[in-house]
Amino acid sequence: MTMPTDQENVQAKVVRYLQTAHAMEQQSLDSIEGLARQTEDDQFKQALALHANETRDHLQLLERRLEALGEATSAVKDTQNKLMAAVSAATAAMRPDKEGKNARDAYVTAHLEIALYEMLERLARRAGDEETSDLARLIRHNEEAHAHKIVAMWDHFVDLSLRETNMG
Ligand SMILES: [Fe+2]
Predict the structure, then answer these.
(1) For 16-48, how does the pLDDT look when each residue is reduced to its tens digit (9 = 90+)?
(2) Does domain 6-163 have CATH number 1.20.1260.10?
(3) Ligand 1: distance of its center to the CA of 1 in Å?
(4) How far apart are the CA of 132 and the centre of ligand 1, in A?
(5) What are the structural domain ranges in the chain?
């Protein structure tokens, strides 16, 4: 049995990160669609609808990249995440200060993804896998643009939150 080289180890990790990213985007899509259904605010709804479309593109790009590397998406991670997203969408609809908490969730989710793509970009570069590195950067830029949109809306979210009768 031959031991994998360092380079092979790094590339194997790239694949696992790609699979994690795919599972994360899958969960993200479910949660974005859930938030878009729940919010009564047009501006937030629009931002979420746009990001849902971007997320569908991200999923496709990640699937294509994994295929090109001869790998599949991780069905186990995808299923787990889908279940978690279903639970969180159900509780998100009922909780007090729905709009405020949903805005914070959208912001946190975007940044979890940004952190993952920052690492994937660098990891892939070390593996000499420039295509994956470029893809990670491209998706991260989309996530950052989405996060900036939320940042620009903080005052608006405070207004929405104050308007809610159930402000818990
Ligand atoms: Fe995303």
Answers:
(1) 999 999 999 999 999 999 999 989 899 999 999
(2) yes
(3) 40
(4) 16
(5) 6-163
